[in-house]
Structure formats: C-alpha cells, structure tokens
Amino acid sequence: MSTETLVATGNKAHSHGPGSPVPLQARSERPTSYDVETFPAPNGREEEWRFTPVKAIKSLFEDAESTETPKIDASGPEQVAIETVVADALKVLTPQDRPSAIAWKRSPSALAVRIPNEAELTEPVHVNVASLGGRGYTHLIVEAGRHSRAQVIIDHTGAGELSSNVEIKVGDGAELRVVSIQQADHESIHLAQHDALVGRDARLHHVVVSLGGKVVRINTNVRYAGPGGDAELLGVYFAEGGQHHENRLFVDHEATHCKSNVLYKGALAGDNARSVWIGDVLIRAAAEGTETFELNRNLVLTEGARADSVPNLEIETGEIEGAGHASATGRFDDEQLFYLQARGIPEDAARRLVVSGFFNDIIGKIGVPEVVDHLHEVIETKLARTAELSATAKAALGQ
Description:
This is Fe-S cluster assembly protein SufD. By secondary structure, the chain is α/β, with parallel strands linked by helices.
C-alpha cells in the first residue's frame, strides 16, 4: 500500500525525491496529439506508466490494424439520434498516450449518441461494447444538447484486448449522467480515454465501475467551456487476484466559478490484486471562484493485494472558493468485525456488512437503479469468493 501527494502552486517541475527513477511532471505539461509518433512505446519508467504492467498490454502499443472488430451498438428513447459519424466529428478528445492515439487512428468512424436540445429523457440510453477475443478499437461520442437531461450507460463485456476513446460534450445548462461499466472476462484488457467538455452552467455526472478484466486502465479528463460548470466524478472498483484496475483523472479548471467533486472507492482481494488511482486537479490562473475536492479510499481485504493512491493538486490562483484532497488505504477493520460478531452475526456475514457499508455512500450517488442493483450483486459474489480465499488460507495455517 502506498500514498503520495503533490500540492503545487505554479510550479513547473517536481520530483519524487532523491533516488527517484522519474521526475514528477506537472499534469498540464504532458503532451497531447493525434499523431501516434508523438508517444514512444512505454517501457514502464515513464511517470504516466510507472504503475501499469506494460508488458501485459504491449500489443496495444503496436500501431497495427485490429484483429477483430468489437461489436458496438446503442438503443434509447426515440428522440435520441444514434448514428455513425467520422472520427473527428466532435474532437473534444485529444489523445494523451500512445494507445489512445492508435485507437483514434485505427477507428476511422465513431458511434455518436446525440440528445437534442431541451430533451428530458425518462429512460437511459444503453451502449453495448462487446469484445470478441482479438485486439480491437472503438470510438464513442456522447453529446447532450442545451438544457437537456439524460443518462447514458456504457457496458463493456467479452474477451480480448480493447483500446477505446469516449468523447462527451455537455451543452450549456444540460445535465448528463454517463456510467461506464467494465465487466469483461477475467483475462481481458481494456485501455480507455474519456474526455468531457462541460458547458456553461451545465452538470456532468461521470461514473466508472470496474468489475472485471485482467488490466483495466481508464483515463478520465474534464474541461469547462464556460463559467458555472459542475462535474461529479465517481468510481467503484473491486480487483481480485491477478487483476490490475487503474483510474487516472485530470480535472482542468480553466473557467471561472466551476466545481468538481471526485470520489473513488475500491476493494482488493487475492494475491497480486492491484489498484491504482491518480487524481490530478489543475486550477489555472484565470479560474477564479473554483471549488474542488477529490477523495480516494481503498479497502485491502487479504494479504498479497496492493493499492496505490496519488492525489495531485496544482493551484495557480488564490482567488478560489476551496480546494482539497484526501486519500486513505487500509486493511479490514477488525474492531468493526468484532463488534458485529459480539452481537451474534457470523464472521462471513459481518465481513460482507462492513464492505457493503464501505461502498454504500458512493453506490447511492450513482443514481441509476439498474446499475446499483447489479453492482450490489457483483460485490456480493466477489465477497463470497473472498471468504473462500480466507477460509482456505486459515486451513493451510491450521487455524
């Protein structure tokens, strides 16, 4: 378990300290480009790749054609326009790493979901992305018109290796909820970049739920197109033995009187279960009146699991409403377990209650009943497997 924190005020270069293998580069300084050659193939020593198992995903660093075409389709209320468009139809997103640039290049078209101005959808839009076993690329555009209200659920399933780009534009005065669920096969790989542009007085709720996959790495980036924008970024993940779940966020406050709130929670169980959370927030000199907070909490349920949590904050103006961050990683609370067992609750049930309580506040914020119910079911299943692991370990020790 480890926690690192950077708080910078106008600084241009940082370091992890003496003996650090790489400099800690300010998030705003890293390159973005549609050109694949801007990004050399990573070796794992780069700041943005130092936590990632690059050997396991090296095929997605190759600038090569897909070996299969993932199936992507969408359905929703009749007023929603769902169509195939050219890849650069919106260009909210600029790739920030090599896999994203390759996915942009190798996806000449995009699936676009467009909510009309002032539409208020009573049912979610569903986008299904199914990988079929090879290496593939996808590109999705979600655009909410002015003063619209909508929910979009993106469900990733299947096997294989997927690199994807998701562009989100929230029009002035609109409110959009986007839920991205990663529940592909245990051995699958999914790398993604999500970029969102939040309009004047608009609100974005962006939710990332990672429940499956050998390596899942989601980069989420938010910018503001005008004052009064509000972004809520939520994440839930549960990594089991041999799984790597990584979430990287960058909130770029460049407009006045905007808000951002980041809350990610994860649990880990099993040998070599790994989670990584990187939260970067930049408050630019012109972004007066900004209010931002980011929080990451991790619960390590068994030996052999590890969580890394790195909140970073760059502030270029003192004229803000408030800015802060917090991060905590801890093991199972034996005192809570003892309290419940002392009241007659069996150990396995007590463990499930503690973990459910850990997740409940963030699950309650997701706001989509079908996602919430499914998430509860999956967490219960994972906790049952964790209980089996614990029982096996105790039996091996003769306890």
